[in-house]
């Protein structure tokens, strides 16, 4: 990406690539090859929201009340927030310092800018929850260093920045291109596609009981964004597989499966920290199967074989959480809410 070549000809669409575009003029949005990225950018804009638009009044009352929440519920909520508060900062950092820097597709870079902003909105949402409830900000935001199960998840993910964040790192060799692909697998498929999901489930568990519903609504908006991030990451992986099929070796595929298995073990450890005794019909065993179920679906999305073949133990969550139809879900939720209110008459 050197200086502009004066009088140079327009970019050849056939030379556009996610990485290693031979004609890597990232200033020209057209010709647009990776239209999935443009679609994601438009969808992200259409879904724009801000945390402060959501009322936290009920949550504030319940959090202050001595009786609305059990000690186990409070601890579960805090631990989940402890994970969330730093997770989106970690994701944002990788989008900007890793994905964006090395991607040669202008439309993908457009979406990554949107994605980075959405990660900031998510961190804002957690900040807003913590502030609204009068929690100790320093304690919650530092939990990723103090709570073993959060630390281990984050440490696992962050270890895949090594190399990529090196100022001398460049794509264009077999080894480095696989390293970049590995980074997307870890951050999109695992961080955004697996590590967020048991925490989402906890928040929906509260919501089903009419508890902390403002926080849960924040999380619904976050989940809608995150499912876009996940789909975008899957598209990046599958497009790179098409553009550079030599990278997708049997060894590399097995490596991706092994990474997902390590992530499933870490996520299970996290779930047992959140639910040492189990609450509202969810316990660590249920979570183990849910995590396995999600992991199989993620593997399938990049063409890798299922490893666990389990039923979804929380079928009530499949609509709420594991959706590819975010809009329908939100319309349904709003409609049901309205109908419920009218039934009072
Ligand atoms: Fe994200």
State the gist of this model.
The protein is mostly helical. It has 14 helices and no strands.
- In whole angstroms, how far apart are the ends? 65 Å
Largest sheet: none
| Structure summary, number of beta strands | 0
Instruction: Based on Cα principal axes, name the global outline.
Output: globular
Arithmetic mean pLDDT: 89
Please tell me the CATH architecture by its name: Orthogonal Bundle
The name of the CATH topology is Ribonucleotide Reductase, subunit A
Over all CA atoms, what is the radius of gyration?
Answer: 21 Å
Catalogue the unreliable spans.
322-345
| CATH class assignment | Mainly Alpha
> What ions, cofactors and ligands are bound?
fe (iii) ion
SS content category: mainly alpha
Order of helices and strands: HHHHHHHHHHHHHH
Count of helical stretches: 14
Amount of beta strand: under 5%
Please estimate the helix content.
55-70%
Number of domains: 1
CATH-defined superfamily = Ribonucleotide Reductase, subunit A
Cofactor: Fe cation
Protein name: Ribonucleoside-diphosphate reductase subunit beta
Transmembrane segments: 184-206
Family: Belongs to the ribonucleoside diphosphate reductase small chain family.
């Amino acid at each position: 990406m050197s200086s502009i070549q004066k009088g140079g000809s327009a970019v050849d669409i056939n030379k556009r690539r996610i990485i290693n575009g031979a004609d890597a003029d990232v200033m020209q949005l057209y010709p647009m090859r990776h239209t999935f990225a443009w679609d994601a950018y438009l969808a992200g804009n259409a879904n724009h929201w801000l945390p402060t638009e959501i009322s936290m009044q009920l949550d504030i009352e319940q959090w202050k009340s001595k009786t609305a929440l059990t000690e186990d519920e409070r601890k579960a909520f805090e631990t989940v927030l402890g994970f969330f508060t730093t997770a989106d900062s970690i994701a944002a950092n990788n989008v900007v310092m890793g994905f964006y820097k090395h991607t040669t597709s202008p439309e993908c870079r457009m979406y990554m800018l949107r994605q980075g902003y959405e990660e900031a909105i998510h961190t804002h949402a957690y900040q807003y929850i913590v502030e609204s409830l009068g929690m100790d900000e320093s304690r919650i935001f530092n939990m990723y260093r103090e709570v073993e199960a959060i630390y281990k998840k984050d440490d696992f993910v962050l270890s895949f920045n090594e190399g990529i964040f090196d100022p001398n790192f460049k794509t264009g060799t077999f080894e480095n291109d696989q390293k970049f692909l590995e980074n997307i697998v870890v951050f999109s498929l695992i961080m955004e596609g697996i590590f967020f999901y048991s925490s989402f489930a906890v928040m929906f568990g509260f919501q089903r009981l009419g508890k902390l519903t403002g926080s849960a609504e924040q999380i619904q908006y976050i989940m809608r964004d995150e499912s876009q991030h996940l789909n975008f990451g899957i598209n990046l992986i599958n497009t790179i597989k098409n553009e550079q099929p030599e990278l997708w070796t049997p060894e590399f595929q097995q490596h991706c499966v092994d990474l997902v298995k390590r992530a499933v073990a870490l996520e299970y450890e996290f779930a047992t920290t959140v639910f040492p005794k189990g609450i509202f019909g969810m316990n660590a065993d249920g979570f183990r199967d849910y995590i396995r179920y999600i992991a199989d679906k993620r593997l399938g999305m990049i063409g890798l074989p299922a490893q666990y073949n389990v039923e979804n133990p929380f079928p009530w969550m499949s609509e709420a959480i594991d959706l590819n139809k975010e809009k329908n879900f939100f319309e349904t939720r709003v409609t049901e809410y309205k109908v419920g209110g009218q039934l009072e008459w």
